[in-house]
Specification:
about 525 residues, alpha/beta, TIM Barrel, Double Stranded RNA Binding Domain, 3 domains, eight-stranded parallel beta barrel, three-stranded antiparallel β-sheet, 16 helices, about 40% helix, binds acetyl coenzyme *A, binds 3-methyl-2-oxobutanoic acid, LeuA_bact_synth, cytoplasm
Length: about 525
């Protein structure tokens, strides 16, 4: 069997990732992702499925035209027309691979392909031979290998290696396998396939049971030397093995898996953000490596440990994966060590033991009432002026929006500005835009709106809508949140919430305080 000290990272964000409902990517978006993956250092990127549509054909071709360092690949069924389309789309690539596949499990062969196993072997061999006419680098995948007969896998792999496949992929297509079982399958098939040393064995695991990464690593320990994965674990159904988790597991546990990858890990977070913004799939805060909380500590005991010696609670450094720093979040679980450290960072003298102790008691009381403790809250707290917490410069007193088909909506807004009633009105491209413009006529904040997001808190047309507005001014970013059954009112509240925070005394912005 062919074993090396390198693990080939095969990214399929633009193919299997794109099969995630709602994650469709345009040609230009794929070009942006392709360039980012090249910077990240992936060995192979699967840019699409050329036969799927004219748009995907053009996307594969466009990625193949711009990416020079990584191999660009297209998927193709075991059909001549698929392979011809893949070959044509990949024609401009500096390095190219055709990836052809056919299912090998009894259930897929019988019900989906309606083919006998002998026919499947024959068609796989023909496909690999056809692909080799266009390119030297051909990968063969046995779809649903995780539920296939190992003897049949050995037979088909032997045949496609003889036909010229250089990479043999063993997918757990439906995410059914358990790690020890999948590792054993890969080890067994590699050991019993004739001429396995002429191919690199690869795995492609799905996350239906949340085991895609564990299964991939189990296979690597048994000799697999290519892992197929995606940024943020994007992919069909519950997704694929996530690239960032595979790569960082290899790095952090080098003691158990002494393999190298070409990945520049500092590019992981930028790649994650790009994929998230293009697909509109938010990264959950607790997602390993790339979630906003992956390097954040709120618990006092942890914060104390990290302040004394970072490795007490961190197995890797935030900076190594592309964050600017780890993050201490002050909240009700925080202790004196983190509280004192933040005061010192803010240049605030904590005072003698009594003053500091009193401030800490006030901090805990505030944290019980408030989710987010801002630096401004700490200043207010230490100066004894806690009223700053609730002080709002602008309060909504009335809102009237008129909207008629064919005309621009108009918003009339009344605000209480530090005790004085002020009215204004404005037209906008939509009712929310009109409201924001009317508020800005009064506030004149000079803020730039960076995000507008609406979530339904409950289901049904009468549900509460929760709006988030992110504003930026002179590099300072604040988030405002507002909820109401009327989405326009919720938007006004969110905008004013953000504005009121922006108007508070400005202090140092903590790195990544606004999350991903
Ligand atoms: C596990 C995976 O992720 S596999 C990749 C899945 N990705 C996709 O399917 C996305 C792109 N797919 C598509 O755009 C379309 O399905 C196409 C263009 C490939 C095919 O479209 P259609 O010709 O309309 O076929 P349709 O999708 O309805 O059915 C698939 C056909 O391919 C056959 N087929 C499926 N896999 C393979 C294969 N690996 N090799 C050969 N034939 C196959 C099926 O048996 C079925 O054949 P039938 O029409 O004779 O019953
Ligand atoms: C085409 C193959 C590799 C696949 O996507 C799967 O089996 O999940």
């Amino acid at each position: 069997m062919m074993t090396t000290n390198n693990l080939v990272i095969f990214d399929t964000t633009m193919r299997d990732g794109e099969q995630s409902p709602g994650a469709s990517m345009s040609r230009d978006e794929k070009v942006r992702i392709g360039k980012t993956l090249e910077r990240l250092g992936v060995d192979v990127m699967e840019a699409g499925f050329a036969i799927a549509s004219k748009g995907d054909f053009e996307a594969v071709r466009a990625v193949a035209s711009v990416v020079k360092e990584s191999t660009v690949c297209s998927l193709a069924r075991a059909h001549d027309k698929d392979i011809e389309a893949a070959a044509e789309a990949l024609e401009p690539a500096a390095r190219k691979r055709i990836h052809t596949f056919i299912a090998t499990s009894p259930i897929h062969m019988k019900y989906k392909l309606k083919m006998e196993p002998d026919q499947v072997v024959e068609q796989a061999v023909a496909a690999v031979k056809k692909a080799r006419q266009y390119c030297d680098d051909v990968e063969f995948s046995a779809e649903d290998a995780g539920r296939s007969d190992p003897d049949f896998l050995c037979r088909i792999f032997e045949a496609v290696i003889a036909a010229g496949a250089g990479t043999i992929n063993i997918p757990d297509t439906v995410g059914y396998a358990l790690p020890h079982e999948f590792g054993a399958l890969v080890g067994d098939v590699m050991a019993r396939t004739a001429n396995s040393d002429r191919a690199i064995f690869s795995v492609h695991c799905h996350n239906d049971l949340g085991l895609a990464v564990a299964n991939s690593l189990a296979a690597v320990q048994q000799g697999a030397r290519q892992v197929e994965c995606t940024i943020n674990g994007l992919g069909e159904r519950a997704g694929n093995a996530s690239l960032e988790e595979i790569v960082m597991a290899m790095r952090v546990r080098k003691d158990l898996m002494a393999l190298d990858t070409r990945i520049d890990t500092t590019q992981i977070v930028p790649a994650s953000r790009l994929v998230s913004s293009i697909t509109g799939f938010a990264v959950q805060p607790n997602k390993a490596i790339v979630g906003a909380n992956a390097f954040a500590h709120e618990a006092g005991i942890h914060q104390d440990g990290v302040l004394k010696h970072r490795e007490t609670y961190e197995i890797m450094a935030a900076e190594d994966v592309g964050w600017s720093a780890n993050r201490m979040v002050l909240g009700k679980h925080s202790g004196r060590a983190a509280f004192k450290s933040r005061l010192e960072e803010l240049g605030i003298e904590p005072g003698d033991d009594n003053d500091f102790g009193d401030a800490f008691v006030r901090f805990k009381a505030l944290a019980d009432k408030k989710h987010d403790i801002f630096d401004e809250d700490l200043v207010a707290l230490v100066s004894g002026n806690e009223s700053m917490d609730g002080a709002a410069m602008f309060t909504l007193t009335n809102l009237n929006v008129t909207s008629q088909l064919g005309t621009n909506p108009n918003a009339a807004v009344s605000l209480d500005v530090q005790g004085e009633g002020v009215d204004s009105s404005a037209q906008g491209d939509g009712p929310v835009d009109a409201v924001f413009k009317a508020i800005e006529k009064i506030a004149q904040s000079g803020c730039e709106q960076k995000l507008y997001n609406v979530n339904a808190i409950t289901s049904g047309t009468e549900s509460q809508g929760e709006v988030t507005v992110r504003l930026e001014r002179a590099g300072r970013i604040v988030n405002g949140v507002g909820a109401d059954t009327d989405i326009v009112v919720a938007s006004a509240k969110a905008y004013l919430h953000a504005l009121n925070q922006m108007m508070r005394p400005q202090l140092r912005q903590h790195p990544q305080a606004s999350g991903v």
